[in-house]
Amino acid sequence: MNSLPMPLLDKILFRLDLKSLVMMQCTNRYIKSHISDDPSFEIGYSSHARLSYIYTFSKGAPFVFYQPFGSACDSRSYVKTFASLGQVHCYILGSCCGHLLLYMSGLYVVNPLTKRVRLLDHSGSMLLATIFNGPNNKANNAAEDRSMCVGFALDHSRADATKGFKIICILEIHTTYAFEVSDGTSWRFSETIITTTNSKSELTKRMKPVYLEGTLHWLRNDGSIIAFNIETEKARFIPSVFHRPEPEMKLFFALDVKINRLTLISGTKETISVYTLTGDTKWALARQIENILMTDSEFEYWNVVAYDGKYMVVKDKEKGRSTTGGAHVYNMEDNRWGAWWSTACQAKYNLDLFRFTPFFSFFEHTEVLVEDSTNGDLAQIMRLIDTTKQKNKFFICWA
């Protein structure tokens, strides 16, 4: 295979699942180097990898779930795994390029695929100190309300991007925004401060920032955006405006990976509308989807929890089904709905659900988590994405 043209070799390797790809590295030094050390391979493989999500409750929970699924919206093809953490509550604060930012009695960056972990000192962060008031806090409303102020990102488009990451915390005081920055070693304030005197809207609660082309974007209630470039550490105000036709309209802020644009999803009982940001000023309607979930049966609640331009995930619960809830996936390419998973999660529990793409790279100064004795709870999360064996576990969420 060494003599194959590189584009053809990549086409073959991109078709392998993670377990087979790991095994492939053991057969040939040249292929191992190509898979492990070439950033372009990681980017290409991740774009072809099977879509998956990792999630837990926004208030924190003693479990984390990993949910992959294929191209068809067929619940029979989905295999879900979960990590039970005992008494420790886990919060997922971010996901980027196969790495997760977690808080569980400490702040960690982990790569479940490579089994590498890095413990971070978050004592210098003003925001995180207010969110996590003491270790193992089981009922922290601040964590649910303000975790959306935390951004986590790295840029794999640069050759040295695998060597570092940044955590950006946005601090909102009326119409002024400041930014805490950490590269994993220390915390400091960015020199950039933004004051939006002509716009008095606030950041949208419980809406995670969206990472696009080296910049984190936070949505505000009026549709405008606060953007922060992680390389230059410069922030800017994007004065876009979104007018809600109905006050009860549900909103979701996301990235359309197919067209590489910021996206707003708005939903009513009749239709779900997809808007894309054109230029820096206008949210343009790109698509409308009939909300057949609401028309076919009555639901106690529903909410869009994920969107990437290919799939849209809606969490819902039918009336009269005790505590049983579920989620449905809309395939944007096939224009059809399908079931995804069933849960016993009540409406009062919000999910922090993140798109997960596998990457084999790891940051400097990380450690390999070998034994459960090192950190049993982290080891459980590492095994969510297991390349050595296939798990098949199903669950009922505590209510």
Automatic annotation (TrEMBL):
Name of the protein described by the UniProt record: F-box domain-containing protein
InterPro entries, per the entry: F-box-like_dom_sf, F-box_dom, SCF_F-box_component
Domain F-box: 1-44
SUPFAM superfamilies xref list: F-box domain
Organism listed in the record: Brassica carinata
